[in-house]
Amino acid sequence: MTKKPLLFDCDVSIIGAGLSGLASAYYLRESGINVKIFEARNRAGGRILSVSDKKESYFDLGPAWFWPHQINIQEMISELDIKYFEQYEKGHFLFENDINKNASRHLPKWEMPVSYRIKGGTSELINKLADKLTPETVNLNSIVTQIESRDGGLYISGLKDNKDFRIKTKYAIVTLPPALIPTQINFLPRLSSKVTRAMEDTHTWMGHAMKVVIVYEKPFWRNKGLSGMGMSYVGPVQQFHDATPYDEKVGALFGWIGSLREEKKDERKQKIIDQVVRMFGDKGEKPLFYDELDWSKENFTSHENEKIKFVSEHPNYGNPTLLEPQMSERLFFASTEVSPISGGYLDGAIYIAEQVSKKILNMI
Predict the structure, then answer these.
(1) What is the dihedral of CA 264, 270, 274, 279, to 10 degrees?
(2) For the residues of 10-42, what is the DSSP string, one character each?
């Protein structure tokens, strides 16, 4: 008596429609693999989020930069015909350590490394990747709660639009931040304590960041010979940078907020505007557009029990334990934090997506 062939709903299920999830689907679809993505949010992008003002300029509340040595993202944006431009760094930077004194001006004593931003915001990368996939590939509002290994495959179950769903897949790629995975997904059988501990010990890049963007008619600070970069021990913004878009239709600053997270938004906004005026001048008094995002409050980026932890240097990512496939070599992890190359960066998300996709293609 011959066995009936196993039936699968798809070849590969991907949990998370951020950059690594979409990039994984892109690489797999190129080889004709049937892929489904499950994204808990009502949008794709994950920690990539570009917001728009009334003049249809786009500003990043998530990651914005990449660098010349990061070849994976450069190859990707070249394939997708995405334009990019150099981050503005010309002029003096400002340093503030006393609210009662003017910020001091300094020319960098070091050579500022060249960095790049994507024309139209980093979400342009997300949009172009999503355009390469079929409409039914990406399932939004789909929260995966369990992955079970049995019957020669993996069963993925959860809630889609608040309704139960369950599918069978040959392989699964989890692209959530590792620290978030144990709080969101139940694994049957359980993953080893070594794997769980590795996930819990992995710092979520930008998981505790709070970013603000402030838009003006013109980048007025440039006329003063300022680069837009400013550092402050007073706050509430610890560090400013120029966020003016490529076409310079408007001027913009972005900053990392270090204090006043628990104040009301309007009160915090006014204190940040006051800081811009204090550091950059009176033309900062009336912005055209303001937006902010506290990533530590995003349920699908950070979990509520995770304490806010600020890091003084880039974490050491690419834990070998998380690079090993689990559940009979059918389950893979592929967030940027897992990547041994450019971990935590956009480049790392693309690198790990390509590497995991290659492994699956060799096994499928």
Answers:
(1) 70
(2) EEEEEE--BHHHHHHHHHHHHTT--EEEE-SSS
Mean pLDDT of 73-101: 97
Task: Enumerate residues 6+ apart whose C-beta is below 8 A from 305.
Answer: 183
Residues 18 and 21: their CA atoms lie apart, in Å, by 5
What's the maximum distance between 2 C-alpha atoms anywhere in the chain?
A: 87
- Distance from the Cα of residue 72 to its chain's centroid: 16
136 phi-psi bin (left φ>0, alpha ψ -120 to 50, beta other): alpha
Give the integer Cα–Cα distance in Å for 58 and 295. 19
- Residue 71 near residue 49 (C-beta atoms within 8 A): no
Phi-psi region of 228 (alpha: psi -120 to 50; beta: other; left: phi over 0): left
* Both structure tokens of 153: 């495959």
Which candidate, 164, 201, 167, 166, places its Cα nearest to that of 182? Answer: 201
Q: What is the pLDDT of residues 148-190, one digit of tens each?
A: 999 999 999 999 999 999 999 999 999 999 999 999 999 999 9
Amino acid (1-letter code) at residue 284: G
Spell out the residues 6+ positions from residue 262 whose beta carbon is closer than 8 angstroms to its own.
Answer: none
Domains and CATH numbers, the chain: 1-48+123-205+314-364 (3.50.50.60), 52-121+208-297 (3.90.660.10)
Q: How far apart are CA 158 and CA 142, in angstroms?
A: 7
Nearest-angstrom CA–CA distance, 338 and 322: 6
d(CA 290, CA 235): 17
